[in-house]
Design brief:
The protein is α/β, with parallel strands linked by helices. 64% of the residues lie in helices and 10% in strands. The chain is built from 20 helices and 10 strands. The strands form 2 sheets. The protein has a 6-stranded mixed β-sheet with strand order 6-7-8-3-9-10, sandwiched between helices. The protein has a 4-stranded antiparallel β-sheet with strand order 2-1-4-5, with helices on one face. Helix 7 runs antiparallel to helix 9. The mean pLDDT is 82.
C-alpha cells in the first residue's frame, strides 16, 4: 500500500527535493548552535575574545535569517506539494468511482464515499507533506546529536540513549492501539456523513411525515457512536502523549543525576554538561516531534487505507479486451434462457430461463406486477448487471462482448425516478450529448415539449434547477430527462415509466414526440398506465414464471385473458 502511495510523489519530485534540501539545511543550522555555545563558553569567554563572540553571534544571526527563509519554503511549498498530491489522488479516486458498476453503489453509502473524497484525502495531504520532513529531520538530528555526544563522553551518551530507548519502545507499543482507534473513528465518521447526507436529502419527506423527532433519534444514535469512537481515540492519544512526556522527563532526570555525578568525578566539566543538555534536547526534540505528530500520521495512514480499499476493488462489469465497437447499430435485442438474481441466490431469481426476442424498429411494451423483472430486463440490456446464465444479445452479439461505452452509447434510458443535477437547465439537457450545440439543445427541448416553459423563465436555459431539480415540478424534471434522450438520439430506447409524472395533455404531446423519435428504432416501454401502450407493436405480459401473454392490444383484449382484466381494471372508474 505504501509503495503504491509513493508513486504520487513522482510528478512533484522537484518540490519534494526542495522540501528535503530545506529540511536538511535547517537540521544542520540547528546542530550548529550547541557547538557554538560550547565554543563560546570553553574558549572565547575564558580567553576574553569578545570580538569572536560578536562575530559568531552575527554569523548565527545570518544562519537564522536563512533558517527563517527555509522554514517559509517548507511551510508554503511543502503544503503546495501536499495539495497537488491530494488533488491527484482525488482525481484518481473519482475516476475509479466512475468506473464502478451498479453492484458497488448498491452496497455503498453516498456520505461514506464523499468522506473518502474529501476529509480522508485532506488528512493524507497533511501527512504526505509533514511525515517525510519530520522523519528526515528527526533522523538527522538524532544521528548528528548522538554522534557529537559520543565524542564528548561515550558512557554518559550510552546512559542517555538507554532511557531514550524506553521512550521509543513505549511509542511503538502504543501505535497499533492508536491506529485501531483512528480506523474506528474513520468508519464512524463515514456512517455519520452518510446519515447526514440521507437526512438532508430527504428533509422534505421528513417534514411531510412530521418525522423530525425520528430523524433526530437516528442522528443522535450515529452521533453517539462517533463520539464513542473519538473518545476511545483520544484516550489512546492521551496515553501515548503522557507516556512519552514521562519518559522524556525521565531522560532529563537521568541526565541531571548521572551528569552531575560525572561532573563531580571530573569525567566531564560543567560546560560539557551544558552542551549535553542542549544536544539531548535535540535528541528528544525529534522524538517528541514524531510522537506529537503521531495523530496526524495515523490519520494519514488511515486515510490511505480507506483510499486503497476502494482503489483495489475491481469492477465486475468491464469492457472485454478488444471489445466489439460498432458505428451503426441495427437494434435487434434478444434474451436467451436468461437467469438473473441480485443476491446470486437461485431461490431468489428475478428472471429464470427467460427468453425474448425484440426485432429492430419494433415498439414493445412490458407489462406485469411489481417485482416480476420488467425493470431488471431494462438494466440487463445496457449491461448494468451481468446475467448468471444465458445471454443478452444486441444485434446478435452478446452484450458482454461489446466495448461497454460503445454499447451504452447506442441505448437511451429514461426512468420514472429521473435525476436532475444541480446546475442549469441547459447543462442538464446537454448531459445527453455534452458536445451538442445550443441549437441542438433547443431542438431537443422543443421535441420534449418543454421549450416554451424554459424561455418563459427569467434566465431561460441558464435557470438553475436547484438540488436534485427541486425548483422544477416532477413533470418538468421528466421532460428535461426526455429532452436528454432526444439529444442523444440512440438506436435503442428504454422508457421505464417515462411519462408517469405528466398530465394527460402533456403526456399525449410527449407520446407524439416519442413516436417521432422511435421511428426506425427499437423501443422498449415499461408502463403501468396501460392506456399509453395501446399502439405498441407488441405487448408482453410478464409474470413470476416468465411470459404469460403477448400480442397486440386488440388481440389481447379479444382473448379476454390476464391483460384484458388488467386493462379493464385500469379504465374502470
Amino acid at each position: 500500500m505504501i509503495k503504491k502511495f509513493i508513486r504520487y510523489y513522482r510528478p512533484h519530485i522537484k518540490l519534494f527535493i526542495i522540501d528535503m534540501i530545506c529540511a536538511l539545511s535547517i537540521s544542520i543550522i540547528d546542530l550548529l548552535f550547541p557547538i557554538a555555545t560550547s565554543k563560546v563558553l570553553k574558549e572565547y569567554i575564558p580567553e576574553g575574545a569578545i570580538r569572536m563572540v560578536v562575530i559568531l553571534g552575527i554569523v548565527l544571526l545570518v544562519f537564522y535569517v536563512v533558517r527563517f527563509i527555509l522554514s517559509y519554503i517548507i511551510g508554503y511549498y511543502g503544503h503546495i506539494m501536499g495539495i497537488k498530491l491530494e488533488t491527484d489522488m482525488r482525481e484518481d479516486l473519482f475516476k475509479k468511482i466512475q468506473t464502478m458498476d451498479y453492484q458497488f453503489f448498491d452496497d455503498k453509502k453516498t456520505g461514506e464515499l464523499m468522506t473518502n473524497l474529501t476529509t480522508h484525502l485532506h488528512d493524507v495531504s497533511e501527512m504526505s507533506h509533514h511525515a517525510p520532513e519530520d522523519l528526515f529531520i528527526s533522523f538527522l538530528m538524532l544521528v548528528g546529536s548522538f554522534t557529537y555526544l559520543l565524542f564528548v563522553n561515550v558512557y554518559l551518551t550510552l546512559i542517555v540513549f538507554v532511557f531514550l530507548t524506553f521512550l521509543i519502545i513505549y511509542s511503538i507499543s502504543r501505535r497499533n492501539k492508536m491506529m485501531k482507534g483512528f480506523r474506528n473513528t474513520r468508519n464512524a465518521q463515514g456512517e455519520l456523513n452518510a446519515e447526514v447526507e440521507s437526512s438532508i436529502s430527504g428533509i422534505r419527506l421528513t417534514k411531510a411525515f412530521h418525522n423530525e423527532e425520528y430523524e433526530e433519534k437516528k442522528f443522535n444514535k450515529i452521533n453517539s457512536l462517533y463520539r464513542s469512537a473519538r473518545t476511545e481515540t483520544f484516550k489512546q492519544i492521551g496515553l501515548f502523549g503522557s507516556g512519552n512526556d514521562f519518559f522524556i522527563n525521565l531522560t532529563n532526570l537521568a541526565l541531571l543525576v548521572f551528569g552531575g555525578y560525572f561532573v563531580y568525578r571530573k569525567w566531564i566539566d560543567y560546560i560539557d554538561l551544558t552542551t549535553y543538555f542542549l544536544y539531548v534536547n535535540f535528541l528528544i526534540k525529534p522524538i517528541s516531534r514524531l510522537t506529537n505528530s503521531m495523530e496526524q500520521l495515523q490519520q494519514g495512514f488511515s486515510g490511505i487505507e480507506k483510499f486503497y480499499n476502494i482503489m483495489n476493488v475491481e469492477p465486475k462489469i468491464v469492457s472485454p479486451e478488444n471489445g466489439v465497437e460498432k458505428t451503426e447499430f441495427v437494434g435487434n435485442v434478444e434474451f436467451r434462457d436468461v437467469k438473473f438474481s441480485y443476491t446470486h441466490n437461485e431461490d431468489q431469481y428475478v428472471l429464470s430461463n427467460f427468453t425474448l426476442k425484440i426485432p429492430s424498429g419494433k415498439k414493445v411494451a412490458l407489462v406485469g406486477e411489481t417485482g416480476v423483472g420488467k425493470t431488471t430486463i431494462s438494466k440487463l440490456i445496457p449491461r448494468f448487471y451481468d446475467v448468471e446464465s444465458g445471454e443478452v444479445l444486441v444485434d446478435d452479439i452478446d452484450v458482454r462482448d461489446y466495448d461497454l461505452y460503445n454499447l451504452r452509447e447506442a441505448i437511451g434510458h429514461v426512468q420514472q425516478d429521473v435525476f436532475i443535477f444541480y446546475g442549469t437547465i441547459k447543462e442538464n439537457i446537454l448531459y445527453g450529448k455534452p458536445e451538442a450545440t445550443f441549437e441542438e439543445v433547443v431542438e431537443a427541448a422543443k421535441h420534449a415539449r418543454i421549450h416554451d416553459f424554459i424561455i418563459g423563465l427569467e434566465d431561460g436555459y441558464e435557470t438553475l434547477t436547484g438540488e436534485r431539480g427541486i425548483r422544477l415540478s416532477g413533470g418538468q424534471q421528466q421532460r428535461i430527462a426526455i429532452a436528454r434522450l432526444f439529444l442523444k438520439n440512440p438506436k435503442i430506447l428504454i422508457l421505464d415509466e417515462a411519462t408517469s409524472s405528466l398530465d394527460n395533455i402533456t403526456e399525449s404531446l410527449i407520446q407524439q414526440s416519442f413516436d417521432e423519435l422511435a421511428r426506425n428504432k427499437t423501443t422498449i416501454v415499461i408502463a403501468h398506465r396501460l392506456s399509453t401502450i395501446k399502439n405498441a407493436d407488441e405487448i408482453i405480459i410478464i409474470g413470476k414464471n416468465g411470459i404469460i401473454e403477448r400480442g397486440k392490444h386488440d388481440e389481447l383484449m379479444k382473448s379476454n385473458g390476464y391483460y384484458a382484466s388488467l386493462y379493464n381494471s385500469s379504465t374502470t372508474i
